[in-house]
Amino acid sequence: MKKILFASSAIVAVAFAGQASASEPIKLSVGGYMEQWAGFADQDLDAAGGRVNAFQSDTEVYFTGSTTLDNGIEIGARIELEGETSTDQVDEQFLFVNGGFGRIEMGKNDSAADAMGVTAPSVGPVGPNDGGMEDWVNMTVIDTVPSSGDQNRVTYYTPNFGGFQAGVSFADDSRTNGTFDKTVTTSGTSTTVGGLTSDTSGAGDNIVSAAVAYSNDFDGFSLGLSLEGENQGEGNWYGAGVNVGFGNFTVGGSYGTKEEDYGLTSRNSTAGLDDTDAFDLGVSYAMDAASVSATYAYQETGSTETQGAALGMSYTLGAGVAWQSSVFWFDEDKAGTTSDNDGYGAVTGLKLSF
């Protein structure tokens, strides 16, 4: 892997050779979104001891800028600022390089497997496949693309060849919990103290992700396909998805499986969890400013079975303003009837894009 990274660096360095100045300085532009939701949920098991807040929100502000060098290569950056968080104020931040060779991203960002994964169509504020349903009720997250999330990594995407594109990501996540401990000996007494820290947010091993996707429009229909996978620690996860569009309809689904040792490291003596298998199916219909969808998802992890379904609606009120609503249902069966849970809910609100 190091040889590959060194070779890639050399290629980029040669491409930049002799290009000391850019045509225009980088100027950041502002974008982002704000979502404000109101809803309710009814469920049998309330592990938190009270109902979920009836009002929820999600806001991010993007700062993006780029410049094109004299040789035609584009270089830029993107910084995503969370509107409300108690931990990581900056969600993602990375630089990118675009050219005839493809695209390179370096910084804290999603993996190629996460970015290129295709899942069932779903509109509205709540969906069953990692779509925020778990924010309103006490349920296990169903996820057919269970990637490692934002990590400090480097990602390469190939150019698009007739609808085909591939991507690969590498994250050097060798610091358990982002910290090196070191032992200091004073007067014959050894003491372990905290050492260097790094924002790795991972389990303690390198993370390698890869994906291949196809997307194209034909006479009367469209097709989207993906194959993706990721290795972390001693295990892997794999996934695949397909979407087919015809007329105003889009139908599709996805499948993902995660090995029990995914995310575990040689320094982690904790026993692995059970293997996880998940899938989703959905259909959407778009008509002028409105779109609706129906989506179902199912996941099994050992003796725990979780399923959910949602009906969603989105209506564009104006440029950058959409009214969205969802009604949903879920059911979770665990070992022992005391921990089973099921219920339903409804959510509505506005999404602003700017």
From TrEMBL:
Stretches assigned to the Porin domain: 10-328
Leader sequence segment: 1-22
Matches recorded under Pfam families: Porin_4
Top-level taxon: Bacteria
Alphabetically ordered keywords of this record: Signal
Record's keyword annotation contains Signal: yes
Coiled coil: none
UniProt protein name: Porin
Organismal lineage: Bacteria, Pseudomonadati, Pseudomonadota, Alphaproteobacteria, Rhodospirillales
